[in-house]
Amino acid sequence: MVFGRGRKAKQEQLTDPGETREADAVDAGAPPVATDGALRGSGPYDASEIDNQDGYVDLGALLIAPREGLQLRLEVEEATQRVVAVTMDLEGSSLQLQAFAAPRSEGLWDEIREQIGQSVGSQGGQVDEIEGHFGIELVAKLPAGDGSEGYRVARFIGVDGPRWFLRGVLGGEAALDRNAAAGLEDLFRQIVVVRGENPMPPRDLLQLRLPRDSGATAPQGAPEFDQPERGPEITQIG
């Protein structure tokens, strides 16, 4: 698994497209997950629902299960240098992840889907609701923007957890083909959200970060984390 950080990125909003910058970097086996009846479905999980955090890549608000061939890109807000999203690249497709604080009594996904539809529609695109492995999903199509008649396609998935909301945006072949999305969907199921106990307004981003100690945090068998390098710019629906 390769791990790195983009040096600059426009902050991703909950419903709007954004620009990101790519990077580099690490590799190993799957971490343990609790198997008792307290788990909600088949993931993603809350930090309270796993036995321990060993074996995960610790990015603060998100714990990521490593997998061979997986590349992680942290997306950084240029003005503040705050990490605002993480993107998983696997087998030619991508899955951008953001976690948000949510109300204790209700989820955000129903409301967010409506806002995504309005945002995409205002840009001349369209959205379709489909039933997926994580409930209702959105397939969004936006004009390519390069003078061609093509579209950029992204598939939005959302999961409401205990006081958090996790949003994923699938790009590449995974946005169109469920078979191509299988590996990233499996990784999405294994994600652990670390909400923390501090009070936060709903929709505030949960804090992401680089591992504090790359050598200590890397899963067993993975090489040490290298210093991030700036990569080519990409654009995707976010």
Brief characterization of the structure:
With 238 residues, the chain is mainly β. The protein is 13% helix and 33% strand.
Key terms for this structure?
238 residues; mainly beta; four-stranded mixed beta sheet
In sequence order, what are the helices and strands, one letter per element? Answer: EEEEEEEEHEEEEHEHE
Count of runs of 4 or more consecutive helical residues: 3
Rg measurement, Å? 17 Å
Runs with pLDDT <50, length 5+?
7-30, 32-40, 214-238
Mean pLDDT, to the nearest integer, reads: 78
| Helix vs. strand class | mainly beta
End-to-end Cα distance: 23 Å
How much β-strand is present in the residues? 25-35%
Walk me through this protein's architecture:
With about 240 residues, the protein is mainly β. The protein has one domain. The protein has helices at about 110-120, 180-190, 215, and strands at about 1-5, 20, 45, 55-60, 60-65, 70-75, 85-90, 95-100, 125-130, 135-145, 150-160, 165-170, 190-195, 235. An 8-stranded mixed beta sheet has the order 1-6-7-8-12-11-10-9. A 4-stranded mixed beta sheet has the order 3-13-5-4. Strands 2-14 form a two-stranded antiparallel sheet.
Task: Spell out the blueprint of helices and strands.
Layout: E1 2-5, E2 18-21, E3 45-46, E4 57-58, E5 62-64, E6 71-76, E7 83-90, E8 93-101, H1 109-122, E9 126-132, E10 135-143, E11 151-161, E12 164-171, H2 178-190, E13 192-193, H3 214-217, E14 233-236
Parallel strand pairs: 1-6, 3-13
Antiparallel strand pairs: 2-14, 4-5, 5-13, 6-7, 7-8, 8-12, 9-10, 10-11, 11-12
